[in-house]
Amino acid sequence: QVQLVESGGGLVQPGGSLRLSCAASGLILRFYHMGWYRQAPGKQRDLVARIRSNNSTNYAESVKGRFTISRDNGKNTVFLQMNSLKPEDTAVYYCNAEYEFLASLNYWGQGTQVTVSS
């Protein structure tokens, strides 16, 4: 079965950096658009960054210039490099995989907590 496993979250001071990883199994990553979403307590889950199967990317306005999404299809892994972190980036970060030929076929990871605090 398909599994997405996020890692790399943790506690970091404002201005610091973290690199999240999403390891996928049970699917062929190059056929999927991949996204990172986040959900803060009491708020909805929002898109942070997305990388399509053709490697085109888009970002939420709030993270542009600070976050970078990338993928390694050979390792079936997607990354989110987060720099200049702010307290408002605190949330649970989720990985999503969407099949490029059928948008309704998509999968979620279990999430990883990112806390930005001094």
From the structure above, extract its key features:
mainly beta, 118 residues, 11 strands, four-stranded antiparallel β-sheet, seven-stranded mixed β-sheet, globular
Short description:
It is built from no helices and 11 strands.
Molecular structure report:
This protein is mainly β. It is built from no helices and 11 strands. The strands form 2 sheets. Strands 2, 4, 5, 6, 9, 10 and 11 form a 7-stranded mixed sheet that branches. A hairpin with a 5-residue loop joins strand 5 and strand 6. The termini are far apart.
- Sheet/helix structural class: mainly beta
Order of helices and strands: EEEEEEEEEEE
How many individual helices?
Answer: 0
Shape, please? globular
Q: Please summarize the sheet with the most strands.
A: 7 strands, mixed
Helix content: under 10%
* Low-confidence runs: none
Q: What's the topology here?
A:
Layout: E1 3-7, E2 10-12, E3 18-25, E4 32-39, E5 46-51, E6 57-59, E7 67-72, E8 77-82, E9 91-99, E10 106-108, E11 112-116
Parallel strand pairs: 2-11
Antiparallel strand pairs: 1-3, 3-8, 4-5, 4-9, 5-6, 7-8, 9-10, 9-11
